[in-house]
Amino acid sequence: MKKKTIIILGALIITLVVVYLFLNRKNILINENANEKTEVTLTIKTPVLQMTSYKDEEISDTYTFMKKLATAFESQYKDANVKINVVQFEKANEDEQIIGCFDTEDAADILYEEYFNMSTYVHTGKVVPLDDIISQEIRNDISSSYWDISKINEKTYMMPFLGMQNTLCYNKDLFKQVGLEKYTTDKDIVQNWSLKDWEIILKTLQKKLPENIYTMLMYGKNESGDTHIITLLRSRGSTFFDETGRVKLTTKEGIEAVQWLMDCNKKGYFPANAENLEINNCYDLFVNGQLAIYINNAVLDATMKKTNINYGNVNFPSIDGKGFTTNFLTGFEVFDNGDEKRLKVAKEFIKFVYENDEWLEYSAGAIPCSNKVATKYEDALKDKQKYIDNNQTGWNFTGNAPTWRKVRNVFYKDIKELLYGEKTAEEIAKQIEEDCNKAINEGYANSKLHE
């Protein structure tokens, strides 16, 4: 009996040990599986763009910046094993690299690009709104004028990182030569002139300058620089776009602005045969001392300072005298490629940039969209401070139209017609409105926003 009991106890112990080992092994497997991380691969695409950063002298282009940023994000991300491929492309191949790669393994998860082109992709339905990852702190750190350009239907589809502001500039020596000293300044600021001032200045320059020196830029050969002409068409109070994003120029204010440009042309304020010139021709005239008023920005500043031109900056004319500028932003957008994990990590990447001062500070080099970065690098950005102080003058000159490039292809031809002077201001305003809206409506007919 005793022997039997021992045998039973031994069998029971063996059974308990087996059960324990089995359960323990199961728990080990469960824990091992729990510790396994999801593999996520992202693709960031960026065109060939030069970039400098006071934060890091090794940065010479956006590709180098993105590679460093991608490595930093990969190493700190905890919720998945992330691999980021950074792809650089030529601007001429942009649609092929973005739209042409939709629904393929080469599709972009994140695009870092100039708004000028990337805003059109929002209308493909692939670009996701990012308001859910934008904290109030991030929102407050960036100028409202930049956020306005980043939105469509009140949702934020693009994240502003770098800014570039285009103002007008003028040759101080030519102004002094004709007695317009009081409209100049030695301060490194962006000035404003009233519409009355503008008329006095343009009339005086045209009357007193030699015949081979022109008053103000104008061109109509191609679409280059068209945004500046659009901004001039706001000078009499026109918003250019209506609340639906269509061009609305057949208003009293719009027709008056068209008439003003036509009058400037007739009075000889513009270079001769401006309809056959492009913006670069006007640049050549300005640096050669043959044009009194041209365009300037932070990039051109570096080139201008190598010339002998003594120049000042001034905003585009406006009816309230506060002026306008054309602001070009560069930033991020995120694409939904049908993979929730990729989308989640892509949005976390954007948060990483904007919630991490170390990487946000890489924007100091151009005009940073972040106010705290601009403040921290105030001394280094001294030559750009005039633009930073002037950022509220910017406006959304594309209206985030879904087919902006097609709009540009017709707009400059209408400006050429304006410069020919064979039609009335009412006819030109109507022609611009109809031609641009035809292109815009075609885009909206195929537009789809992400839901």
Describe the structure.
With 451 residues, the protein is an alpha/beta fold. The chain folds into two domains: 38-164 and 328-395, 3-Layer(aba) Sandwich (D-Maltodextrin-Binding Protein, domain 2); 165-327 and 399-445, D-Maltodextrin-Binding Protein, domain 2, CATH 3.40.190.10. Helices cover 43% and strands 16% of the residues. The protein is built from 18 helices and 13 strands. The chain has helices spanning 2-35, 62-76, 94-97, 115-118, 136-141, 144-150, 172-177, 195-208, 226-232, 252-266, 279-287, 298-304, 340-354, 357-360, 371-376, 385-389, 404-420, 425-445; strands at 38-47, 80-89, 110-114, 151-152, 155-156, 159-171, 190-191, 214-216, 291-296, 311-314, 325-334, 367-368, 394-395. The strands form two sheets. Strands 1, 2, 3, 6, 7, 8, 9, 10, 11, 12 and 13 form an eleven-stranded mixed beta sheet that branches. It has a two-stranded antiparallel ribbon with strand order 4-5.
Largest beta-sheet details: 11 strands, mixed
The CATH class of the largest domain is identified as Alpha Beta
CATH superfamily of the largest domain: Periplasmic binding protein-like II
Low-confidence segments, given as residue ranges, are 26-34
CATH topology of the largest domain, by name, is D-Maltodextrin-Binding Protein, domain 2
Helix percent reads 40-55%
Distance between the termini: 78 Å
Mean of pLDDT: 91
Examine the secondary-structure arrangement and name the CATH architecture of the largest domain: 3-Layer(aba) Sandwich
Anisotropy-based shape: globular
Number of helices: 18
Number of domains: 2
Beta-strand share of residues: 15-25%
Structural class: alpha/beta
For the secondary structure, the number of strands is 13
What Rg, in angstroms, do the CA atoms define?
A: 29 Å
